[in-house]
Design brief:
heterodimer; A: 235 residues; alpha/beta; Rossmann fold; six-stranded mixed beta sheet; four-stranded antiparallel beta sheet; 10 strands; 30% helix; globular; B: 393 residues; alpha+beta; eight-stranded mixed beta sheet; 13 strands; 57% helix; 17% strand; elongated
């Protein structure tokens, strides 16, 4: 699937947090990483290795302390808060481990949410939402339910539909199977694989679940903030 | 973010916290009701006082001092003067009608009474107010005096004789006018100018002359000219106020207006205290909302909301709350005002006047309260970093 057009380019990316007394806590060390259009990649590492921080930086939710990050050739480091919002709105979507669905909204409304922040949207809102719901394999009978009426797997599917609705170029999934039983987790991974293969959506998954290495093209290991690309991808 | 989505999202957020939203709205309702009610009371008072001042006001100018008949004639002869009315200073005296004592005010005027003091003849007739030689023992009484006599004796005074200071006078008519409406005691008795001199007063001079101008807007220039003319006849400086003074009814009205404005302002400030408390309640709710919805705000930012989108949503939620509170508060004031006006129909001073100005001010203030008290929570929400907000518990 990979066509070798880089969409994400990280060069010497470091990230540190600073404690109240000014003590520096380094999280990422000079990370170099390229994600190509159409990639399906897993960033694999144990808890506390810095993988979520790396995902947040790639997704424009957080800014690196040093290094260079380009998304589709555009320098992300110097982007303003509004420009980062625009990047997240148009090009990057997230699937969170804990779903982050709004409990007061229905499935349909949750999926609709990213579209309301699209400044230049000219499509048919309903068409985009129903298309995303179908792509996430959500049955129509679920669309007007509230998240608390759904199973864990169904909630994750809603989160996937919400991530797909704006038709992003890059989909970032943080432990997409973390809160699901193994059977449901497998179904979710199948759905993500289908999206990658059928629509060419670039997917980066952050996980500590080594079984996912079997379904991705590339595996990047991360440990104590250091990254190295593995050859263990089985696909 | 498109405006319709912004409003939809705000209303949905408020609806999901319905009880808390309603309690906050009640705070604003009380505040706006309080402000609107106070403003309406102030407007009522203002309109009432101005009406009375306007009805008391005699002509455009009031010249005071020891004004002789010659001075009076000179004033009347000025080309800018339409008419004038001189008043004698008449002391109080005993009045007996049908063997019953009364204490009315005694007035004696010369000039165009009909022109300067609007009145209507309720019964009988009036004598010629402009005739300086008319000294028949005839009087005209106000409706207040006629009513007082009718109430105490059960009889009508018209055509009957009454004793004023020991002398018999015949009542030839009853008049009513706004200026007599609020006179203390048993109404007013009007005695002819010539008959009053030597009987009720020894001076032939008027204590005041009311002047009606052809063009009221020139009251200042006309006043200065009259004062200068009268002073010149006494060899005094043109602007001296040693012997004469000229007041304008306009200045009375302006003073009254300033006073009622101050009272309205004071009432408005008193009412604002409740609104301030309501505003603090709104801010408290919005701060709680932002804290509770930190994760939601993080999610909104993660899916593309800009800082200003988040800020606007919280601000709109706040403005919707205070706007609804304002609307209900205004409606409550309208209903309450009508009820108060009905219940206090006998009270001439207290009147609730809800006009467009009061409603506009209340509506504007309720929206401003929403913006002012929503700004701080909205700014806090907008400043949240998405990654921190998503991580919050």
């Amino acid at each position: 699937m990979t066509n070798k057009t880089p969409i994400v380019e990280l060069v010497d990316i470091s990230k540190s947090f600073f404690l109240a007394g000014g003590t520096e806590v380094p999280i990422l060390h000079k990370v170099d990483l390229v994600v190509n259009e159409g990639d399906m990649m897993a960033i694999l590492g144990p808890s506390g290795s810095g993988k979520s921080t790396l995902m947040n930086i790639i997704g424009g939710l957080d800014i690196a302390t040093s290094g260079t990050y380009r998304f589709d050739g555009k320098l992300v480091n110097d982007m303003t808060s509004d420009e980062l919002a625009e990047l997240r709105s148009s090009d990057i979507s997230f699937i969170f481990q804990s779903f982050h669905l709004l409990p007061s909204k229905t499935v349909y409304q949750n999926v609709f949410l990213p579209l309301i922040y699209q400044r230049t949207f000219t499509g048919d809102y309903d068409e985009y939402v129903t298309h995303a719901l179908h792509r996430a394999s959500l049955d129509e009978s679920q669309w007007h339910k509230k998240p608390n009426q759904l199973s864990g797997g169904q909630r994750q599917r809603v989160a996937i539909a919400r991530a797909l609705v704006a038709r992003p170029r890059l989909l970032l999934a943080d432990e997409p199977t973390g809160n699901l039983d193994s059977h449901t987790g497998e179904n979710i991974i199948d759905s993500l694989t289908y999206l990658n293969e059928k629509y060419g959506t670039t997917i980066v998954m952050v996980t500590h679940d080594e079984s996912l290495t079997e379904v991705v093209h590339r595996v990047v290991n991360i440990k104590d903030g250091y990254v190295n690309e593995s050859t263990t991808a089985k696909k | 973010m498109k405006t319709r989505f912004l409003i939809q999202e705000s209303i949905q957020a408020l609806h999901s916290n319905l009880m808390r939203s309603m309690l906050t709205v009640i705070g604003i309702v009380v505040g706006i009701f309080s402000v609107t009610a106070m403003l309406a009371l102030g407007e009522g008072l203002s309109s009432n006082v101005l009406d009375r001042f306007s009805s008391f006001a005699s002509g455009d100018l009031s010249v005071s001092g020891d004004i002789t008949y010659a001075d009076y004639s000179w004033i009347v002869s000025q080309p800018y003067v339409t008419s004038a009315l001189g008043s004698l200073s008449v002391g109080s005296t005993d009045v007996v009608a049908f063997n019953t004592d009364f204490s009315p005010s005694i007035l004696s005027v010369l000039g165009d009474y009909a022109d300067i003091q609007k009145y209507s003849v309720d019964e009988g007739e009036v004598f010629d107010w402009t005739d300086p030689g008319f000294n028949d023992l005839k009087v005209v009484v106000s409706d207040g005096f006629a009513d007082a006599v009718a109430e105490d004796t059960g009889r009508s005074v018209v055509g009957k004789d009454i004793t004023i200071g020991g002398t018999l006078y015949t009542v030839i008519g009853v008049i009513s006018s706004n200026s007599m409406q609020y006179t203390r005691g048993d109404g007013v008795i009007m005695v002819p100018y010539a008959a009053a001199i030597g009987t009720f007063t020894n001076s032939k001079s008027f204590s005041s002359v009311a002047v009606l101008l052809q063009d009221s807007s020139y009251y200042e220039i006309a006043g200065q000219h009259i004062l200068a003319g009268l002073n010149a006849s006494r060899q005094l400086a043109a602007d001296s106020e040693d012997e004469f003074s000229v007041e304008t009814s306009q200045s009375f009205i302006e003073t009254a207006q300033e006073t009622t404005n101050m009272i309205s302002l004071f009432l408005g400030i008193v009412g604002s205290i409740a609104l301030f408390v309501g505003g603090i309640g709104t801010m408290n709710m919005m701060l709680t909302t932002v804290t509770e919805r930190t994760k939601e705000i993080g999610l909104r930012k993660a899916v593309g909301a800009r800082d200003r989108d988040v800020m606007l949503q919280i601000l709109i939620e706040s403005v919707v709350l205070t706007g609804i509170g304002g609307l209900v508060g205004i409606l409550l004031t309208i209903v309450g005002g009508q009820l108060a006006n009905t219940l206090l129909a006998d009270n001439e001073m207290i009147k609730v006047l809800i006009n467009a100005k009061v409603i506009m001010v209340a509506a504007f203030v309720s929206l401003i309260v929403g913006v002012v008290f929503g700004l701080y929570p909205a700014r806090n929400a907008a400043r949240l970093q998405p990654v921190d907000a998503l991580r919050s518990e």
